[in-house]
Amino acid sequence: MRHRAAAAGSTPFVKASFAVGSSELRVDLAQAVELARPLGFDGASARHFAAPAAEARPFSIGDFSGDVATGASCNCRTITLTPHCNGTHTECVAHLTVEALDAWRVVPRAPVAAIVVSVVPDRIGEDRVITRAALAAAWQCADVPPGPVVPQALILRTLPDPNDAGATAPGSMAPYVAADAASWIVGLGIAHLVLDLPSLDRTHDGGLLAAHRIFFGLPPKSRRLADAARAYATVTELAHIPDSLADGPCLLAWQVPAMAGDAVPSRPLAYRYETIHGPVT
């Protein structure tokens, strides 16, 4: 990677060039598109799967209150949250296994080539399902360019946005990805999936988690990490994919804390390509 920073006093920017395969990708790192949903502690944040709201309360010990508003010397808060339920998070195969694996260790350290695709789920009974047919049609509409820049990540936008008011009827389940669509994604060589849905799978599926298992290469009913053929893969759920990020190729990066667990709160960032040159010499 090569980069060039702005001169002092000028508009901040960092131009960067990435070699991906035989091509060179150029982006402005100061123009990231936020894909994370802000997580607050006022009770208004996501509470999927009947989880309690994320909470932050002043740490208190002895005569120290951890709250400047009540006279403390500084603010110090204890945070309680459920990463899978309270906001944008990135998870790994350990979501399904007995053995532990920290998601932050699996998240790529460097940006990866990605593709943004918008899909309208099919209506199957009362469910809205992202099927293979719907996804394949959306992939074609995204005008995925042929050539040496092969996407490693898929940013999947659901239409209409399932998190918008009125997009999902009260009491109904959120859309989800069908097993055949998950298989199709794996067949494309996608290792990292970003969704605006609370889960890759149906909210209530009897514990099958079929799409998760297919994406992580974990056989049905297996709970062994050693059985996972794609333990390098990640799934990011509850993302926000704004309209300003057009369908098509981009660069994707993650910011995550080095916090143990099968899922970690995350901040995915997308960068539009300014230019694509190839081949790199």
Structural account:
The protein has helices spanning about 85, 105, 130-140, 180-185, 210-215; strands at about 1-5, 15-20, 25-30, 35, 55-60, 75-80, 90, 110-120, 120-125, 125-130, 155-160, 175, 190-195, 235, 250-255, 265, 265-270, 275. The chain folds into 2 domains: about 40-85, no CATH class; about 90-275, Putative cyclase (Glucose Oxidase, domain 1), CATH 3.50.30.50. The radius of gyration is 20 Å and the shape is globular. It has 5 helices and 18 strands. The strands form 4 sheets. The chain has a 9-stranded mixed sheet with strand order 4-17-15-8-11-13-14-7-16. The chain has a 4-stranded antiparallel sheet with strand order 1-2-3-18, with no helix packed on it. Strands 9-10-12 form a 3-stranded mixed sheet. It has about 280 residues and is of the alpha+beta class.
